[in-house]
Design brief:
The chain is an alpha/beta fold. It is built from eleven helices and 22 strands. Strand 1, helix 1 and strand 2 form a beta-alpha-beta unit. The longest helix is centred in the N-terminal third of the chain and has 24 residues. It starts with a strand and ends with a strand. The model has no long low-confidence stretch (mean pLDDT 97). The structure holds flavin-adenine dinucleotide. Flavin-adenine dinucleotide binds next to strand 2, helix 2, helix 3 and helix 7.
């Protein structure tokens, strides 16, 4: 039985860098991957979707070219095979880089196969049994297929399989009006598909403030995306009216309503890949959703076993998975007691214009009982946005009216996935907004309005 100092299960956003740190520190490391090096982000998540977002933006700007005095002859056409080839090339380069790095890493052995726990110190991979005193789980997650009547009987796509599409659907039906669903909705609408989004809740991206949710909905609707909220009683079947292959039906005000489409994407949430890990043989505690329960230093209930990334439920992003790696490495190798609770929630929604988010929503800030102040500004009053012809959206900053602490921000507008970092850094520095209010920013940028907004708070 090969014995190691550390076994890492999964080569996602935490596992691979952790292998690098541990092996670099002279430890004997085994890393196991059952599918593609780099995991979700590189192969079916951030990287390929953001290349598609870039292609969709190019299509949109080509359509708008005349507004900018640029003459393009003829209608915009999408070569979906090229779009896909570009996404595949960017993902492939990243995946190959990780694979080569791990394969060539001193002190590290790569196992290709599915790892399952045998007990708290050993895992089986194919015919091999590996053992180690420390085991790090970085198995990520996958799309949930909800219990929707008829779903099993019709062809459907997930965020993984939609990456294989090299044609533009005639009409893409999307179940799920949150981050994954909305990014694909706008991408394929801009590629020329008809798109209908079905959201069971009363509004899109429910965890955001209502005004942000409404603004995102307005942006997507203005591009011709059909959005059905409060879509109760969802069912799926074969299309029968000749308009397409798939029908999604839901309860409407006047009875059952059906929408017919050519393709169906299910984007209704994700679940951790812990159902086929035999974690119970090691005595690892999971919650009802299959999430591995960890403490603030990402230790499971079993001594010597850690869980990092999406599978621990403490984040659902590449940057949180990578930060998990940093926390574990700091504790084990640097005598630096870093903690998950030091992390401020940050993320972006990559519709165009993007939503950059940090910290609390206005709604959640008010629930803390503090005296909350907000500052908002429409993008139509941002010079750079006007110059770029991208004035959709608005920015909102939320602060504690008494201490001046910035509690959160939702910046929906051109460049806002980058602009938000100015606020993230102030929040990490734990500085009141008054201290950065007089900062002079570069003109013309979107960021130059942040000091103005910080001088313009009103009670929430
Ligand atoms: C469509 C989409 C778009 C996204 N866009 C963004 C974005 O723009 N920004 C962002 O920050 N996040 C984004 N995310 C989320 C991001 O991709 C994930 O949070 C991130 O990849 C999580 O990394 P991880 O290390 O936890 O797991 P993963 O990257 O999923 O890696 C887990 C690895 O473990 C392997 N594995 C699983 N079980 C086993 C086993 N038993 N044995 C061996 N190997 C196993 C898997 O094959 C996989 O390679 C997106 C996700 C999706 C679905």
């Amino acid at each position: 039985m090969p014995s190691y100092d550390a076994i890492i299960i999964g080569t996602g956003q935490a596992g691979s860098p952790l292998a690098g740190r541990l092996a670099g520190a002279g430890q004997k490391v085994a890393i196991v991957e059952r599918n593609l090096f780099g995991g979700t982000c590189v192969n079916t998540g951030c990287t390929p979707t953001k290349t598609l977002v870039a292609s969709a933006k190019a299509a949109q700007m080509a359509r708008r070219a005349a507004e900018f005095g640029v003459v393009l002859d003829g209608p915009v056409k999408i070569d979906m095979k090229k779009v896909k080839a570009r996404a595949d090339a960017v993902s492939g380069a990243s995946r190959d880089g990780i694979g080569k790095w791990l394969d060539g890493m001193a002190n590290c052995t790569v196992y290709r196969g599915h790892a399952r726990f045998l007990d708290r110190r050993s895992v089986r991979v194919g015919d091999e049994v590996l053992s180690a005193d420390r085991i790090f789980i970085n198995v990520g997650g996958r799309a949930i297929l909800p219990e929707i009547p008829g779903l099993a009987g019709v062809p459907h796509l997930t965020n993984s399989t939609i990456m294989d599409l090299d044609v533009v659907p005639d009409h893409l039906l999307i179940i799920g009006g949150s981050y994954v669903g909305l990014e694909f909705a706008q991408i394929y609408r801009r590629f020329g598909a008809r798109v209908t989004v079905f959201e069971a809740g009363p509004r899109l991206i429910r965890r955001e403030d209502e005004d942000i949710s409404r603004a995102v909905s307005d942006i997507l609707t203005a591009e011709g995306i059909d959005i059905v909220v409060d879509a109760a009683g969802l069912a799926v079947g074969r299309g029968t009216n000749g308009a397409g292959g798939i029908a999604v039906s839901h309860d409407g005000p006047n009875g059952l309503k059906a929408v017919f489409g050519s393709h169906l994407l299910v984007a209704a949430g994700r679940r951790p890949n812990t159902d086929d890990l035999d974690a119970e043989k090691a005595g690892i505690a999971l919650d009802a959703h299959g999430t591995i329960i960890v403490d603030d230093a990402l230790r499971t209930n079993v001594d010597g076993i850690w869980a990092l990334g999406d599978c621990n439920g403490r984040g659902a992003f590449t940057h949180t998975a990578y930060n998990d790696f940093e926390i574990v490495a700091a504790n084990l190798l640097d005598n630096d007691p870093r903690r998950v609770s030091d992390r401020i929630p940050v993320y972006a929604l990559y519709v165009d214009p993007p939503l950059g988010r940090v910290g609390l929503t206005e709604t959640d800030a008010k629930k803390t009982g503090r005296r909350v102040a907000v500052s908002t500004r429409p993008m139509s009053r941002v010079n750079r946005a006007i110059e770029k012809g991208e004035t959709q959206g608005f920015m909102k900053i939320v602060a504690d009216a008494d201490s001046g602490e910035i509690l959160g921000a939702a910046l929906l507008g051109t460049g806002c996935d980058e602009v938000v970092h100015a606020l993230i850094d102030v929040m990490y520095a734990k500085r009141p907004y008054q201290q950065v209010r007089r900062g002079v920013h570069i003109h013309p940028t979107v960021s130059e309005l942040l000091p103005t907004m910080l001088g313009d708070f009103r009670p929430s």
